[in-house]
Design brief:
With about 200 residues, this protein is α/β, with parallel strands linked by helices. The chain contains six helices and eight strands. It has a single domain, classed as 3-Layer(aba) Sandwich (Rossmann fold). The radius of gyration is 16 Å and the shape is globular. The two termini are about 30 Å apart.
C-alpha cells in the first residue's frame, strides 16, 4: 500500500512511520527538514504542509493518509487541513487517519459540548483543542473515510496494549496513554472500519 504521512518527524508520526515501513508499505513523508533516516520504501518530500503544491506532491498516488501534525502554538494544523482535504478529494483518496486530542471528544459532564468546553478537561489552555476542533468540523462536512484518534495525556513510552478505545468519548477514568500505544492504535485503523467518520478516545 502507498501511504502519505504528515508529521512523520513528531513523536506519534515517527512511530506510525516505523510500523508502516516495517510492514513493507511505501511511504511519502512531507517534512520541513531532512531528519528521517533513508529507507528504500521511503520518499521524503521537503516542503511545508501549508503549501498546496507540497501537499499535492505528498498525496498524489497514495491509498491512505496519516496526519500527526502538532499544534506547536501555531495555526499550522488548521492551515494545513483544508489543503489535505482538498487534495485528497481531487485525487480520490478516501481514507485519512489523524491524531487529535481528548479535548475534542464529547463531554460527559455537559452533554452537547466537547470536553474542553464542558469542564471535563483540567487544561486551562484551550488553543490546541480549538485547533483540533477546527479540523474535526472540517472532516465532518466531507465524504472522506476519516478517523480522529484522540489520546488523553500522552507520555513517551512503548506500546504495551491493554488500553481502551471508545467512539466519541474518553474511556471513563482514563488518565493517559503512551505514544507507542497511540501510534499502534492509529496504524491499526488502516485495516479497520470500526471508527470510520468518528472520533475515538484512547486511554488505559
Amino acid at each position: 500500500m502507498k501511504l502519505a504521512i504528515f508529521g512523520a518527524t513528531g513523536r506519534v508520526g515517527g512511530e506510525i512511520l516505523k510500523r508502516a515501513l516495517a510492514d513493507g508499505h511505501y511511504v511519502k513523508a512531507l517534512v520541513r527538514s531532512e531528519k528521517l533516516e533513508s529507507h528504500p520504501n521511503l520518499e521524503v518530500i521537503l516542503g511545508d504542509v501549508r503549501n498546496a503544491i507540497d501537499v499535492e506532491k505528498t498525496v498524489a498516488g497514495v491509498d491512505a493518509v496519516f496526519s500527526a501534525i502538532g499544534t506547536d502554538r501555531s495555526t499550522t494544523l488548521s492551515d494545513a487541513a483544508p489543503l489535505i482535504v482538498k487534495t485528497m478529494e481531487n485525487h480520490h483518496v478516501k481514507r485519512v487517519i489523524t491524531i487529535g486530542t481528548a479535548g475534542i471528544l464529547d463531554s460527559r459532564l455537559s452533554p452537547g459540548l466537547l470536553r474542553y468546553e464542558g469542564g471535563d478537561s483540567k487544561r486551562k489552555m484551550t488553543f490546541a483543542a480549538e485547533e483540533h476542533e477546527t479540523v474535526y468540523r472540517l472532516f465532518e462536512k466531507t465524504d472522506l473515510d476519516w478517523t480522529i484518534v484522540c489520546p488523553t495525556y500522552l507520555p513517551d513510552g512503548e506500546a504495551r496494549g491493554n488500553y481502551r478505545a471508545e467512539k466519541d468519548l474518553l474511556p471513563e477514568e482514563g488518565k493517559e496513554i503512551t505514544v507507542g500505544d497511540t501510534a499502534e492504535f492509529a496504524y491499526r485503523q488502516l485495516e479497520s472500519p470500526e471508527f470510520i467518520q468518528s472520533r475515538v478516545g484512547l486511554a488505559y
